[in-house]
């Protein structure tokens, strides 16, 4: 009897690549979107520099890591001296400044793991999250952007996976599923593990870039223009990779044993990370190591119920790509729970 994980993908899988590429193109942000985003950053810079003239503004997340769609929000990090003031105090003051400058729905969320001010821009309607001195986010944004420049299949795959996750309602961290950031790391790790490899492990190479975030060195090889041909030996098409991605998470991944790690370009055991039991709210049922904050499990919010939902969705996706007559449509059918 053939086991499900031994199934090979359908022989005509490549015929779906053009449709998937067209969908990818349609998800990319428009010129108009990019210029509106720039205007928002300009007006924000003006507001902030009145109160904090030395503050530096960094974009992070999908508006800067090249994984952004036209629906993505704008994530901003302010780098500044805070002297004796706590981050919460600065954020409350920032919220007042932004309200006075007529930004909409301004709200300081000071109790989150990464405290932020959230607001929306009346001009563009974009929603914007602002955090303070979160240099890990600045470093991981650059890391993702650099990975994206090595092989175009990463962006294509990750856009489709993010779109699928949003349509299927499994991109909601507050409900126990996964962040967009986690999905992109799953894609990177998956391409690091293909045979032949499609992506290298930049953190395991010579360190040409270093950023110190709260005493932790975030370092890796960032001369990615030298790696343009890295994945050339692997000829897998987008459709094949998308199927293999879902098939991996549906049938191959050892949820009980393994942690995926972009940092080492492989899997490591939960044992090695001491992620074998629940600690506080970290359940460690589905483990994705943050590349720089290596104590962070990006799957920590996944619980017994949501891990089941996620695995069922991975299985559905793999079987739609395997058997459906019109997988490019069926795969992304909306499911609201
Ligand atoms: N981030 C992080 N640690 C997390 C979650 C997020 O450091 N546990 C940072 C990352 O820099 C990430 C950014 O916050 O790129 C934004 O996260 P998220 O909203 O999940 O991803 P986006 O890429 O912005 O996706 P979307 O297009 O859905 O907005
Ligand atoms: Mg975002």
UniProtKB/TrEMBL annotation:
It catalyses: RNA(n) + UTP = RNA(n)-3'-uridine ribonucleotide + diphosphate. Its cofactor is Mn(2+); Mg(2+). Residues 20-149 form the Poly(A) RNA polymerase mitochondrial-like central palm domain. One of its GO terms (molecular function) is metal ion binding. GO terms for cellular component: cytoplasm. One of its GO terms (biological process) is mRNA destabilization. Its main location: cytoplasm. Coiled coil: none annotated. Its EC number is 2.7.7.52. Belongs to the DNA polymerase type-B-like family. This is RNA uridylyltransferase. It comes from Urochloa decumbens. The lineage of its organism: Eukaryota, Viridiplantae, Streptophyta, Embryophyta, Tracheophyta. The chain holds residues 258 to 594 of 596 of the full protein.
């Amino acid at each position: 009897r053939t086991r499900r994980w031994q199934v090979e993908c359908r022989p005509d899988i490549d015929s779906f690549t053009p449709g998937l590429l067209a969908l990818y193109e349609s998800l990319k942000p428009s010129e108009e979107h990019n210029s509106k985003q720039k205007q928002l950053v300009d007006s924000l810079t003006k507001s902030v520099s009145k109160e904090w003239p030395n503050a530096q503004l960094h974009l992070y997340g999908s508006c800067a890591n090249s994984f952004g769609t036209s629906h993505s929000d704008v994530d901003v990090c302010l780098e500044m001296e805070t002297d004796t003031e706590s981050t919460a105090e600065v954020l409350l003051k920032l919220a007042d400044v932004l309200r006075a400058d007529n930004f909409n729905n301004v709200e300081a969320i000071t109790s989150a793991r990464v405290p932020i001010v959230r607001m929306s821009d009346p001009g563009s309607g974009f929603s914007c999250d602002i955090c303070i001195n979160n240099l890990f986010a600045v470093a991981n944004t650059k890391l993702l952007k650099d990975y994206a420049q090595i092989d175009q299949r990463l962006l294509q795959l990750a856009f489709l996976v993010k779109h699928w996750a949003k349509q299927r309602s499994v991109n909601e961290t507050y409900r126990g599923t996964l962040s967009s950031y986690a999905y992109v790391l799953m894609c990177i790790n998956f391409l690091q593990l293909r045979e032949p490899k499609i992506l290298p492990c930049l953190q395991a190479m010579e360190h040409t870039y270093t950023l110190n975030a709260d005493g932790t060195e975030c370092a890796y090889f960032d001369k990615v223009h030298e790696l343009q041909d890295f994945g050339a030996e692997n000829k897998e098409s987008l459709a094949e990779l998308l199927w293999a991605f879902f098939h991996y998470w549906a049938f191959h991944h050892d949820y009980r044993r393994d942690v995926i790690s972009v940092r080492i370009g492989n899997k490591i055991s939960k044992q090695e990370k001491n992620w074998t039991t629940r600690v506080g709210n970290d359940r460690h049922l589905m483990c994705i190591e943050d590349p720089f904050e290596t104590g962070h499990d990006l799957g920590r919010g996944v619980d017994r119920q949501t891990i089941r939902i996620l695995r069922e969705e991975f299985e559905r996706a793999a079987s739609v790509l395997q058997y459906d007559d019109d997988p490019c449509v069926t795969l992304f059918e909306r499911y609201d729970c």
